[in-house]
């Protein structure tokens, strides 16, 4: 591993650096997402960018690619200031990114995806031969074994990722950002990916590598920059770092006052999950745990640890291949969401906008929809009772809305979330499955949601909270189950749980 | 392969099989292809039934529904010719397209009888085995004009006593020759009979359709209630629509006191019933059964090499290749 | 899926060739009842009858690739057909629409005007879709009425009032309906025209940026936009090409039926859309091939033709057609269903 004179980021005296971001600031309403962040990447090196979820890594990258406009700071490529208007512009300027969620046209071929927007032409017609040949040349160079004519939708995630890297290479990229590239790859695939990255590095490309996997980072990076809470914490040569040191730098924060006092007390066993596995990989495998009345069970894990899949499998949205669920001493089998609702489950989905709210409809509709059958009187819906229940949701959850008839899209994220929690409470569940309940909600509203969750537990409901914000889990849970690569890596009592321990468990099987 | 798919396939095959068994043939009788402009037309349905009855046992028939689209009918004709029919009976969707149809049949050399919708007879004259059986479109209009005269003579429907009938007109289609003839001749005949007429609003073109006519009548009544004294419609379906609109506001109700005369054409069962109940004033009977019998008799004569009109009792009109089935007025029992 | 051995590979084969299998089964069923069905004459009849619908379908297919549709195709065809027929009425026909035309026009002028009219309507659709951001279903629903109104006005503007546009120039009729013999069979010109249009569209779809970008937009509009594809321009381009095809189809249809009325083109778009969908142009967007569209249209026409041929009761014809369409599409979508 080549490590050359690594110095703290700052204006270089001699050679300009390949990429330099200086004093980046970015504020969103209620949050300072970036606060004077620096990042400097040398040509021909791999530069790891680390930090907890929410530390500001992706905001920093979005500023680089012109998706966000930074409030302050400057970006230099080879010493020249740049300001990209968007990903396409950045790509043409030699800066590309391979996202964790690949944005590709699945139903078209590999080569068309690579050359989309600039198809090679002969005599005015798109030349498949040129397209194929140049794709094959890049694949040869990078040792990628994919048929340029294959449909992208038929490739594995790893192959699709390679196609994205090849696309970046086809743009003569000088700086390549990889966001969690290994989160859903097998070991062999990871090795292959590293070989490709190695080739790019020796070709003089500067690579920004975003990952949670400590060992991986220590193995391949030249330098590591660590961020926390939107601030730059430090940049060190990888050779001088250890896993513990990285964790300390990433976490090093006081857990404070952000959480309401816990007034709930776990009681007798409510539900037991035994050996539950999903049907279609990748998914959760062989999960066993119990949940008590009045208990808040936090579920921690890295992106890709299949926590959402676990909730979906319990709720019956995703099919299970084996395992059982016993609730109140009675075996249950949720084959679909209506079974689950009947069995007293409620689920708050992660993607609120996509799967949670009906944006174009009003607060009342959004409140009563999961419970709609109970408003039938002689086959017609009773408006009176729907109004009553909506009023209960608004009052008891303190939803700030001008009226029941307001379209939910006009409410803030926190208030939308409260309406959806209210929707589920109307179905009188005793097990609540909450997937990232505070994502995208501002700090003040978060505290209200925490209070709500604790109150519900105090009423005797069992609650499972999946969250990527560790302080949140530590602040409200009674126990924390850590998942790693679809399996349970450990169950921690809140008294013994620390961020360091959780991180160690989260990386157990990756 | 999912199990379901195989089952669906099997079901489809059985369905197809079931349907074709019913069309299985008697060998010796002649095969006649019949092309109908549209199955769901009340008058044409009476002709269809008459054709079915008249040819039953005498010929093996294959009848197709043109679905109101001339292109579809052309496609169906191609198939009939290809299947080696001995003769074709055609009820054109678009009578103006007859030249293409005649050309195709001429190539096959088989006899053809057109009926109902009247092609340009000069086109038919280009092929010696082509004949037309129809009505005289003008006659239906003229008979409507005569009915208008007899209603006028009852002397109780000129509400505003201005010596004129204020009327609304319902036309079948903008460019259909029968619709044009009925619209024009009903008025001109009434005028010829000495009745003064004044049209209210534009002519409503309602595609021979009850629902459309009802809508149009409702809006006409909303705009001109009390001014409309007479309704003339190109067919009974539209006349029924007008009556429905009238009855909604208390006119033309059985046993009621207020009646606005409504006149149609076709003498459908529904219209005859309405006239007998006193809520409609008259219609013109286009004799579908006589039409069907004439067409089938002529077709069989031509296939068997006899003189076309032999034994039918009909005569050619001036053109020498067309037979006219007479209309008759119907104003109640 | 691809790596599983054995049974799943023949399942996949069945799925991939399901359209051809359906076509084959249909033909076998018909032949069982009517062994004479397999004649070159029937074949050329079917292809000729499929021609104008096929050309229309080639135009509609692009819009379905965008996850849209075009409800106005039939009425646009009506307008363009009226234009070509009115300009090509026989100059000896006394009540022709344009008595001023005393010398027969070259056929190409009415053809170009028909295409122009169709393009104008298609660009209205494109404007609604690309600029006003309306769903194509809605904008074409409106355009369809506008086109019908224009058609009625045009036909009604004749000196003698509304009457069908007929008595067409014999040159026109023979240019559309003619045929020539090659070896064992008689090949109608209509089939040649369909072949030319198909080749043209195959090139557009597979060999031009326009076609490639169209698939990208249909498959993943965000990815397309991020890759620098000009979505608006692409939509206008695809609709423009559709206009050309509608115009050609209209010109041929008027000559084929030899009379144009206000009903011409009614519901043609439904046949065109069914053909596309049977042929695997997916309503979920981004998927479709020109051979697929052709096979789809031909399957539809084989159904029509054979039901006529077998003399099936007209009302059952609807039911059978409906069932076959559902069956074909139900099998076709299996290719793309994702499992959770």
Total domain count of chain B: 2
CATH-defined architecture of the largest domain in chain B: 3-Layer(aba) Sandwich
Question: Helix segment count of chain A?
Answer: 17
- Side-by-side strand order of the widest sheet of chain A: 6-9-10-3-11-12
Strand runs of chain B, count = 13
Please report which band the strand proportion of chain B falls in: under 5%, 5-15%, 15-25%, 25-35%, 35-45% or over 45%: 15-25%
Structural class of chain B: alpha/beta
Approximate helicity band of chain B: 40-55%
CATH topology of the largest domain in chain B: Rossmann fold
Cα shape of chain A: globular
Largest sheet of chain B: 6 strands, parallel
- The CATH class assignment of the largest domain in chain B is Alpha Beta
Q: Give the structural class of chain A.
A: alpha/beta
How many strands, what sense, and barrel or not for the largest sheet of chain A? 6 strands, mixed
Report the C-alpha radius of gyration of chain B, rounded.
Answer: 23 Å
* Unreliable parts of chain B: 1-8, 18-27
- Between the first and last Cα atoms of chain A, what is the distance in angstroms? 23 Å
Describe the structure.
The complex is a heterotrimer of chains A (about 500), B (about 325) and C (about 350). Chain A is an alpha/beta fold. Chain A is built from 17 helices and 24 strands. Chain A starts with 18 loop residues before the first strand and ends with a helix. The relative contact order of chain A is 0.11. The N terminus of chain A is likely disordered. By secondary structure, chain B is of the alpha/beta class. In chain B, the strands form three sheets. A six-stranded parallel beta sheet of chain B has the order 2-1-3-4-5-12, with helices on both faces. In chain B, strands 6, 7, 8, 9 and 10 form a five-stranded parallel beta sheet that branches. The N terminus of chain B is likely disordered. Chain C starts with 6 loop residues before the first helix and ends in a 7-residue tail after the last helix. Chain C is mainly alpha-helical and about 350 residues long. In chain C, strands 1-2 form a two-stranded antiparallel ribbon. Chain C has 14 helices and two strands, in the order αααααααββααααααα. At the A-C interface, strand 8 of A face helix 8, helix 9 and helix 10 of C.
